[in-house]
Write a structure and sequence with these properties.
- The structure holds 2 protein chains of 2 kinds.
- Chain A is an alpha+beta fold.
- Chain A is 36% helix and 15% strand.
- Chain A folds into 2 domains: 5-77, Ubiquitin-like (UB roll); 87-156, Orthogonal Bundle (DNA polymerase, domain 1), CATH 1.10.150.120.
- Chain A has 6 helices and 5 strands; from the N terminus they run E-E-H-E-E-E-H-H-H-H-H.
- Chain A has a 5-stranded mixed sheet with strand order 2-1-5-3-4, with helices on both faces.
- Chain A is elongated.
- Chain A starts with a strand and ends in a 7-residue tail after the last helix.
- The mean pLDDT of chain A is 96.
- Chain B has 19 helices and 30 strands.
- The radius of gyration of chain B is 28 Å and the shape is globular.
- By secondary structure, chain B is α+β, with helices and mostly antiparallel strands.
- In chain B, the strands form 8 sheets. In chain B, strands 3-5-1-13-10-11-12 form a 7-stranded mixed sheet.
- The chains are: A alpha+beta, B alpha+beta.
- The interface between A and B is large, with 57 and 58 residues.
């Protein structure tokens, strides 16, 4: 077992100690070791966005981050953000607008949407589309997702008319 | 009950009933788990002693397997066992994918893993079973296969030449199927017509790219002799039958459980050799085996579709009358027809659907389906429709151009009149009721083409080239056994639903149709709530378990709402009558005087509340001692439904695309897109709109970006999501959706399918819009995808 390395990190506020192989990426670590299956493996080379999570507050592709590099890190997944209520308004808007069909892209899409809303909030549809263009959705055609994000952006920016 | 059930006899007015959920945009309850990452996809399921399958796949498109050496791999850490084709030969019967009603069709026997040779790059050859995926992948790298590469047949155009490479020599040639439909007298009519326009169209080979890859977890219990399979599939009962017959089990000993499915679009309705191998291996090992395809495997082993070349002629008179169509379609389907739906259906659909929206007399369409050394193709969202629509609508636009007629005017002149139904198309398709003209009128009101034409003319003077394109289409939905059953496939065209009330007044409905994100469960809940008379929140829907739900076909060919929904409605209405009848006995009210409204037994005449359903449940389930001895105690009803009068419930629609072509770069910018479709009764307007939008974007993918490219050796060159382009948010337009409702009379519900309309018409609308933009240059593109390179080539600029 000499190939295994010890890491300690915080995932969704919970202290995790684990022995892992250096080749294990964060998505597999979350899914297979911690049972956090909200992050999905879609392409495993950083293109589809289905595995998007937060590491130390930054939005990252779980499949492009080796778990062994995360000793001391803070990781947040869709499960954690759901429990904390941090993106409750986005989630509610996704429900209202039916912005999820099969749902496989949805956790990653919400992560990317939250990144935009939190850091560069805009209700410009073209800007929203541009920001989400690293997250592949095969079902919706994206319009309902843009509608949902636009609505939350307007609300967060204090613009009237948002539900 | 000799009086036929109609909305009137049931006291239902679907539109006006206060507690009706039909026609309302009720939010889907299941979205909450999706947005919290708390869905359960097949790859999320783990079982005790579960092991993992990884496949060694053929690096060659066509090669003989001389020797497989697994000795080193077998000794690698974590490896449980390794299986070759020979190892599974005694466990699993081969299958041949033909249908009896597709006359003359042939295909070769296919095994879960081939024994003698590989016939496409990416075909699974060896299965490694290990404790983890990583360990299995390590071992896979140590498997040595000695190959003798064979000449490769990739080009479908030469697949029937005398010197073609035979994929399966025992078949004699590479011809899988050919069929010609003919009506009227084509040669004579074309000779007499004022104009005949000819063109050759290509639709690019592309694939579904479900974000959740194909996934299966198979577990064989030796004590019970039962195989339990968790699978991301659209058709659990079909898979139950297939796995039972191939593995020598009784159907009743095979259970398919389908949890959440991460997109399907037809990709997950087929039998894949690697997935059958996993089930066979689970039977051998007597423990759970899981396989989740990676993205490379998805690209080379998920079915592809739409690799068609069609040369078409349209005959038109100077006054704009369409005289006829004459079309020759060719498609390459890879080395095997895919089981059990076959790979001849797409070509057959082209024959059935070309010219579909129009009133004309002379028709000839031939499809030729051939083998080649590429990934197998099969049914993918809108099967054949985007091809037929591109051919038809491309030819109609070319005819309009030839006679100097406006594209809208030629459609108005030739679309089948809205009062002409029922009628039969020259291809033999029976139409119950369509609304082409009303749909076109609705679309024109939304698009306002005069405004866009003015803008187009003004911008052309500035060197900006925009185009407006239209495409009318028909869509085949609610298939009867005429699709597969008559050909001998055990694919159910009927579907069932069981609806029951539990003691607290809550309602559970078990349905044979399935959910992959369309919102099937949501519309079933609406229908059941409406039919029983309870708040929609009180209804739970169960799908995707062959041991639990009534037998059914699943969700494909736009049958979920029309077939599964009707079964649910009939079962729900029957349960309501049962509830009212038992309540009448208990309340000593006259028979037929009670109704159920929003969870309450009420007096039908006055609406006065008589008893909550929870009280009725309490009495019947827990205090049966207080009730009359001979009173029925069932609060459960099952109904099955199948269409009977029409082989298919056709829908119709029309799309328009407004776009800009950069004549320097060849890039297309989509500005606006409109769809008007008629899917009959709309159960949930928002879900229908979202099906249409998602379908349009999938059509846009095929029209502009997606292409499975191969080199001359049959190596697929687009095997990552960086190489194979899919539509992303930034390039997509907002899509405006309008509706016409022409319910089918075959059911109480009146619903037809809606899931494929967007995909059916979008590529043709975009093609016509691009060619409208290019018209000042005398340039046109007819080969999808319409890449910058192809557009620049058409402009003579590269």
């Amino acid at each position: 077992m000499s190939r295994h390395h010890s890491i300690s990190l915080t995932v969704n506020g919970e202290r995790i100690d684990a022995m892992i192989e250096p080749r294990l990426h964060l998505t597999d670590f979350l899914r297979d070791h911690l049972g956090l299956t909200g992050a999905h493996a879609g392409c495993e080379h950083g293109v589809c966005g289905a595995c998007t999570v937060r590491v130390n507050g930054a939005t990252v592709r779980g499949c492009l981050v080796l778990a062994v590099s995360l000793d001391g890190a803070t990781v947040e997944t869709i499960e954690g953000l759901s429990d904390s209520g941090a993106i409750a308004d986005l989630q509610e808007a996704f429900v209202t607008h039916n912005a999820a069909q099969c749902g496989y892209c949805t956790p990653g899409m919400l992560m990317s949407a939250a990144d935009l809303i939190d850091h560069a909030c805009t209700d410009d549809r073209a800007a929203i589309r541009e920001h989400l263009s690293g997250n592949y959705c095969r079902c919706t055609g994206y319009q309902a997702i843009v509608d949902a994000v636009e609505e939350v952006a307007k609300a967060r920016m204090g613009k009237g008319g948002a539900a | 009950m000799s009086v036929p059930m109609t909305p009137a006899t049931l006291g239902l007015s679907r539109e006006d009933l206060p507690n009706s959920y039909i026609g309302r945009s009720v939010p889907r309850p299941s979205v909450r788990k999706l947005v919290q990452g708390r869905a359960t996809y097949t790859g999320d399921v783990t079982l005790p002693r579960m092991v993992h399958a990884v496949f060694v796949r053929s690096p060659h498109a066509h090669a003989t397997i001389l020797r497989i050496d697994t000795a080193k791999a077998a000794g690698m850490p974590g490896v449980i066992r390794i299986f070759t084709g020979a190892d599974l030969a005694g466990v699993c019967e081969p299958w041949v994918a033909t249908l009896a009603h597709l006359k003359g069709m042939k295909s070769a026997p296919q095994r879960p893993l081939p024994i003698e040779k590989a016939t496409w790059q990416g075909e699974a050859i060896v299965a490694i079973i290990a404790r983890s995926v990583a360990e299995a992948e390590d071992a896979a790298a140590e498997v040595t296969i000695d190959w003798a590469p064979l000449p490769v047949q990739t080009d479908m155009e030469t697949a029937l030449d005398p010197d073609a490479v035979l994929i399966h020599p025992e078949l004699g040639d590479n011809l899988v199927f050919t069929r010609t439909a003919e009506a009227g007298s084509v040669d004579e009519a074309f000779a007499r017509a004022d104009h005949v326009v000819e063109a050759t169209f290509h639709t690019g080979r592309h694939t579904g790219v479900t974000l959740e890859p194909r996934s299966i977890l198979a577990d064989y219990n030796r004590a019970e002799g039962t195989l339990t399979v968790y699978q991301a599939t659209q058709a659990p009962h079909m898979m139950q039958g297939v796995l039972a017959s191939q593995l020598g089990l009784a159907e009743g000993d095979v259970r398919i459980i389908t949890r959440d499915v991460g997109g399907s679009y037809g990709i997950k309705v087929h039998v894949y050799p690697d997935e059958v191998a996993v089930a066979a291996i689970a039977k051998v090992l007597g423990r759970p085996v899981r396989f989740v395809a990676d993205r490379f495997e998805s690209f080379v082993s998920d079915i592809h579709a739409r690799d068609h070349r069609a040369t078409g002629r349209i005959a038109v008179n100077t006054d704009g009358t369409i005289v006829g169509f004459d079309i020759d379609d060719l498609t390459g389907i890879g080395p095997y027809s895919v089981y059990p739906r076959t790979s001849a259906i797409e070509g057959n659909q082209v024959v059935n659907l070309c010219g579909g929206p129009y009133d004309f007399a002379h028709y000839r369409c031939r499809t030729t389906v051939v083998l080649q050394n590429k990934t197998p193709t099969c049914q993918y969202r809108a099967v054949g429709h985007p091809i037929a629509t591109a051919i038809t609508e491309g030819l109609v636009d070319l005819a309009a151009e030839a006679i100097g007629m406006d594209p809208i005017a030629i459609r108005r002149k030739n679309l089948i009149r809205d009062d002409a139904y029922p009628c039969t198309s020259p291809a033999g398709m029976k139409f119950e009721g369509l609304s082409h003209h009303k749909a076109l009128d609705t679309l024109i009101a939304m698009v306002q083409p005069e405004r866009l034409r003015a803008e187009q003319a003004a911008l052309r003077k500035k060197g900006i080239y925009r185009g407006l394109g239209f495409a009318s289409f028909i869509e085949l939905t609610n298939p009867s056994p005429f699709m597969y059953g008559i050909g001998g496939a055990r694919i159910s065209a009927q579907d069932g639903c069981t609806v029951r009330m539990d003691p607290d007044g809550s309602v559970v409905a078990l349905s044979g149709v399935t959910e992959q994100g369309q919102g099937t469960e949501a519309i079933l809940a609406q229908i059941v709530a409406h039919g029983v008379g309870v708040p929609v929140e009180r209804v739970k829907i169960v799908t995707g378990d062959t041991q639990v739900t009534p037998y059914g076909g699943g969700t494909w060919a736009c049958r979920g709402a029309g077939i599964g929904g009707e079964a649910a409605l009939q079962a729900a209405v029957a349960l309501r009558e049962q509830l009212a009848s038992v309540a009448a006995t208990i309340l000593q009210a006259p028979a037929g005087s009670l109704d159920v409204v929003m969870g309450e037994v009420v007096d039908k005449a006055t609406g006065a509340a008589r008893m909550p359903l929870a009280e009725l449940g309490r009495l019947v389930y827990f205090r049966g001692d207080t009730l009359p001895k001979d009173m029925p105690r069932e609060f459960v009803q099952t109904r099955h439904f199948i269409t009977k009068d029409y082989p298919f419930a056709f829908t119709n629609g029309v799309q328009a695309s407004w776009l800009e072509v950069d004549t320097d770069t060849g890039l297309v910018r989509l500005i606006d897109h409109w769809v008007v479709e008629d899917c009959g009764r709309i159960i949930n307007p928002k879900l229908v709109d979202e099906q249409v939008r998602g379908g349009v974007v999938q059509g846009i993918g095929g029209a502009l970006y997606e292409h499975c490219l191969y080199d001359e050796d049959g190596q697929m060159r687009t095997t990552t999501m960086a190489d194979y382009l899919v539509p992303m948010a930034a390039e997509m337009p907002d899509i405006h959706v309008g509706h016409v409702e022409t319910p089918t009379g075959e059911s109480l519900l009146g619903a037809k399918g809606a899931g494929e309309a967007g995909t059916a018409g979008a590529p043709a609308a975009i093609m016509n819009a691009i060619n409208d933009a290019l018209r000042p240059f005398g340039a046109r593109v007819l080969a999808q995808p319409f890449t910058p390179e192809r557009i620049l080539a058409a402009l003579g600029r590269c």
